[in-house]
Amino acid sequence: MSTTAVPDVAAAPVDQGFWTRHRKTGAVLLALGLLATVLFGALATGQQARFTLSETEGGAALEINGTVGAILFGVVALLAGGAILFGVPKRWFTLTLGLGLVAFVLSFLCWQVSAAPEGRNFMPLVNVVRGTFVLALPLIFGALAGVLCERSGVVNVAIEGQLLMGAFSGALFGSITGSVWVGLVAAAVGGAFISLLLAVFAIRYLVDQVVIGIVLNLLAVGVSGFLYERLMQTNAERYNSPPRFANWEIPLLKDIPLIGPALFRGNIFLYLGLLLVLVIHIALFRTRWGLRTRSVGEHPTAADTVGVKVLGLRYRNVIMAGMVAGIGGASYTLALYTFTKNMIGGKGFIALAALIFGRWSPTGALLAALFFGFADQLATYLGAIGSTIPSQFLAMLPYLATILAVAGLVGRVRAPAADGKPYIKG
Amino acid sequence: MEPGEIHALLGENGAGKSTLMNVLYGLYQPDEGEILVDGRQLKLRGPSDAIAAGIGMVHQHFMLVPVFTVAENIMLGAEQVRGGIAGFLDRRRARREVAEVSERYHLRVDPDAIVEDLPVGIQQRVEIVKALTRDVDLLILDEPTAVLTPQETEELLTVMRSLKAAGKSIVFITHKLGEVKAIADRITVIRRGKTVGTASPEASRDELAALMVGRTVRLTVDKQPATPGQPVLEVSGLVVDDDRQCRAVDGVDLTVRAGEVLGVAGVQGNGQTELIEAIMGLRPMLAGSVTLDGQQVDSWSTKKVLRAGVGYVPEDRSVDGLVKEFSVAENLVLDIYDRPPFGKGLVLRPDAIAASAQERIAQFDVRTSSADAAVGTLSGGNQQKVIVARELSRPLKLFIAAQPTRGVDVGSIEFIHSQVIRERDIGTAVLVVSSELDEVIGLADRIAVMYRGRIIGIVGPDTPREEIGLLMAGITPDSAGASPTGDTPASAPESPGNEDKE
Prior knowledge:
The complex is a heterodimer. Chain A contains 16 helices and three strands. Chain A has helices spanning 21-43, 66-85, 93-115, 125-151, 159-177, 180-204, 209-232, 236-239, 259-263, 268-286, 288-298, 300-305, 310-333, 347-357, 362-384, 391-406; strands at 48-52, 61-65, 122-124. A three-stranded mixed β-sheet of chain A has the order 2-1-3. Mean pLDDT of chain A is 87; it is low at 1-15. In chain B, β21 and β22 (454-459) form a beta hairpin. Chain B contains 17 helices and 22 strands. In chain B, the strands form six sheets. Chain B has a six-stranded mixed β-sheet, sandwiched between helices. In chain B, strands 16-19-20-13-21-22 form a six-stranded mixed β-sheet, sandwiched between helices. Chain B has a four-stranded antiparallel β-sheet with strand order 12-11-14-15, covered by helices on one side. By secondary structure, chain B is of the alpha/beta class. In chain B, α4 (91-105) packs across α5 and α14 (380-392) runs parallel beside α15. Chains A and B meet through α11 and α12 of A and α2, α3, β6, α5 and α6 of B.
């Protein structure tokens, strides 16, 4: 019996020529580095660019001459691009790429900060980091909701609606009872309500999942908007004055420079979000539930033939996803603002983008959400220092990045194979 | 079923073999009747009940998650876990279990390999190991040899024998008579959902075939020796990529002459699909040229190629061959609906279409309730006849048929084969691509074997099956032993000079 004759069809050699995806990425980075060195270097002023490790101008700071910094970091980006183009080992690729992109951003900041008017030419890093996380938080919850749904094969376009419903019911029931905890539970239930509808229509009645998702977003806007006008606007005192979670300072960790004040003096939602990323990541790849969830999202028939309850698992995960998104919505109303009409304002769709950009993995989604949050925060900051760059350009960045990601330019993006396909037995 | 017995279930496509077995595995619920295991009646509500009762199944389309590792696939549904309700997977134990089973039954698999990277034969082995780790006593193999090379099939039969020696019972579903005779202890023949007889493996092929179809069928294709004329299709140095931008056709040279059938044999996925699609103008050519009757057709649109006198039976009839929701009559004029007499200016002529449909339906023996029935409601064999009827209704120079009888019952196979030969005899050049080696041998006047995007050899139809089988696995007579993996380039590509004429 010979096994050598088995044709190895799947592993047929692939000859892509010189321009592999890695090389293309390297070339783009090289061009960015060149742009940074020349353009940012020329535009930067000889003033010091100060990055303070606090929330104000004072205190310890990293300083660099604007021109020197812009050119220096530009060159670093250029070198990183060149290294990728001319072949660093594959395992260094992500690291080198990350380094290059960070250097590019730093070069840009050196220019911007040094060119800012006197008295505003500093960047308070604590503010920036904290702002990044605050802005990323709803995206993190939303993207996690997406992970839970889509890994088990149900497309979740209704993240927006789930966030909104969570924010609304968190505010309503928090206000009525005066308890943040009741508000939190209500928010989870509110999100779960939208996702239960999604589950029933998508799994039981086989409605197109994108269509039902969009319809549910409209439903959430409608229901919460109607009740907002009828209840909350007429009696804001009683129905729309939600209690707020206090900030919890974590001993020891809060004293770490930069990270301490930015991350460890936050509220329950920040800690919960980061914890959920970790828990869901481990659960997805290390537990029985995770294995079954992934199998149901990839090849439900295969899962069924070994006795996995496909539909039950999908229901369970979709409803869990709604609860996660609902809590994410409450991170607005039970910590920051009172409820306003349509207050999520598209964040649910950016969360969907973060899910794709993060390649359907919880940690990937976290990084993508942080990236989007950073771009958002940067836009605010640049507006504050009176930058010459219109902030709208930075606000575009997340969408641009997502388009590039979906087009497959940043590594291969592969959705779960059965994502969006209803499972019909037999 | 006795313990340690191999029981073959033989029947045509659509005879109900797979349905029966899916009931046995708990996937479908029986309408009536009962299942007895060890004398006890069994109620199967789902596959887990079947597994608990010691019944395992290897499906025709593998039930493996492509992106999972072998070990993950095997443990799915029967995970060993630690850590209470958290349920952490015990991967080490799973891996050990896989190793144990592969050791015991000599089924080598790498537990950490990703399934989609494995060749089909190994994937099947993973399926068998998966069933065995669940301690089954009865293993159902649903058409296990459909996707295998003759060599892989031989290996599978060896595995089945060793399982039998270990006391496992096997139900072996197939419609291939040779394999049944080689391995089965008992044979049950099913036709139209009913058991029509049992036979012993000593019964002759003809007897079994007759039981299967219900009447005597000709297993070999009746034909006269070919009288090849001028070259009609000439392909040289053709290079084509597949959908994933991997090289699928890598320098193919082919010539098909008027009045001959060139058969392309090979295991599926070796570039046959892409070769045909490139010729038809459905897929861009990266290099090389294709000429039809001396005319360069490289950059022609598919419509132009068809109008130039090429008939095309695509390999997947439900996707590329027919519009399922359209009626039989409409499908019969898909290629020429805009030409007189079927279309005039902007309008169709329904009466002409209907009249021609009646004619074709009679001529090609299409069994349909009416010409207005949606083509999707017809059986596979009759759908295929609709395509063949459509393509052969035009005067052709070249007829290309990809997998012309896949999933088609024996009666229709016979009819389609006779139509192909008839077309050859009126002087059309015919190119047949099939992964059924018997079909290629039966139809072809010359056989080109394709392996990894190349024509690895061109042989006559009298060449022994074994030799062709080796070619299909990438082993050329002169490279055998030296490089059994087939990395060596294909043996002398065909050129008009050294063509062998049988």
